[in-house]
Design brief:
- The protein is built from one helix and nine strands, in the order H-E-E-E-E-E-E-E-E-E.
- By secondary structure, it is mainly beta.
- It has a domain at 36-115: Immunoglobulin-like (Sandwich), CATH 2.60.40.
- The strands form three sheets. It has a four-stranded antiparallel beta sheet with strand order 6-5-8-9, covered by helices on one side.
- Strand 3 (40-42) and strand 4 form a beta hairpin.
- The radius of gyration is 15 Å and the shape is globular.
- The two termini are 20 Å apart.
Amino acid sequence: MKKLIVLLSILAVLISFTAVPAQSNSTKIVDKKELKEKATVFPNPFSQKLTINVPEKSKVSIYNSWGELIYKEVIETLTSINTSDSKWKCGIYMVIIIPDRDRGWSEKQTIKVHKTD
């Protein structure tokens, strides 16, 4: 279990960087903080409700620490997810947000959140 969490954490760090074309024929790596407005997920930790705010239409997927898909939806604005049912156990979840970008679905953002009682 700890190995999986460590692996997911490393993956989240790697995903936080992206390749963008430079002015020449090369590619440079930039931190996504330099790119457009980002989505937010709050509160963290959460218990009964998780709120996701996206600046534009985005695909949102949430996976538990076992890698199982718990939630998947295309959202356009502030969305609250009820997390009180049985599929939402206490633990770590990875929220993956991919903005529409005119249906190019690029610049993936991964946010780690923690569910408590």
